[in-house]
Design a protein that fits this description.
The structure is a single chain. Helices cover 50% and strands 7% of the residues. The protein has 21 helices and 5 strands. About 1% of the residues have low confidence. The two termini are 17 Å apart. The longest helix is centred in the N-terminal third of the chain and has 17 residues. With 433 residues, it is an alpha/beta fold.
Length: 433
Amino acid sequence: MKNREIYVKDPDQNLLLNNGVATVTDERSIEEFRTLRYELETFVCEGEYARGLKHILETYLANLDRPEQPGVWVSGFFGSGKSHFIKMLRALLTDFVFPQDGATARGLTRLPAEVADPLKELSTQGKRMGDLHAASGTLGAGAGDNVRMALLAMVFKSVDLPEQYPLARFVIWLRDNGFLEPMKAAISQAGRNWDTELRNLYVSPYIAQALLTVYPDFAPNAQEVHALLKNQYPNVEDISNKEMVDVMQDALEREGRLPLTLIALDEVQQYIGENTDRAYKIQELTEACCKKFAGRLLFVATGQTALTGTPLLQKLQGRFPVPIELSDTDVETVIRRVILAKKPDRIAPINQIMTEHLGEISRHLMGTKLEHRSDDSASFVLDYPLLPVRRRFWERILRSIDQAGTTGQLRNQLNVVHEAARKTADLALGNVV
């Protein structure tokens, strides 16, 4: 019997569309849809993942009628699945619908009742209050110190607005006054592309002429249109917290109703680093958003350590009082379910061959802290073709060479285990990594 024959999914056919690394994004390409679908179908909603989702959803529902929502801080070492967790939260909360065939996020995922039930309740509340919505992204180096503008860009993108602040405000005004579709039609009739002309808002003769056509009282001539647009929608580097939440409300509202909204910010701790000013801005931004939207806006952020872990992060505890901590065990569960799952009728042969060679296995790294333990036998089938001793050695090495997490070694455990299963697939049963 070959190793290939023991798996529920053949290692060569079980493709990792995300290479073991989840990316929190609002991209809507065909490739991103394929990746999201794969991640939902293989999402292991157990352990801290299930408990975390349950805690977040129940807390959100409990605070819908209160003045503000408590923020959520998701922590865990590099590779523990923080990005994957909030990406799944986003898709499940809105019950994302795939345009290709109408499949839904909740329909593709195996969810325990403790998670499925509050999601159903959330959908009911969404119908009553104005739908469900989510915006997400990563605060990378490009955000600089303009975190408010970076957040607004994520919100704009989530509602199909231009990410640039002045362009988004102009389109919001057109939309709310019934001019947006006529403007697009006028630009199209002129043989021009709407997005291209919009990027040249201050100087585009086609934007000016179309605006005069749909709203003759806007200005006496095209020259005045350019001047008014530049004055009304200036290109600014930063804005106040009040202006930020006002524009955010304008972007999200439909017919005077604000949807129940999730804002998911990934890698916030990395963004803050050792910068006290950035930590203060995150604190201010979160407070302004949570208080403005009367319990309808949920803020979720991620970091490698709990908020009690550093003096700088401790300042954020008041804004993120709901802690979710992911652990090594969750990663092991995902690996065992997604890559190493075995066929039921192959468990006995694996157990037999491992028992026959137990003497040899127990001598590996004997006398070290990583040596064979009496409870390792329970992991033989689950982790095969990895041996528990080898796994401990492997994880210790990865942690030692990548203490800062800069190379993402731990994050890629899923990818590395998948490659190991492929490399040993055509070897006879008993050949381990």
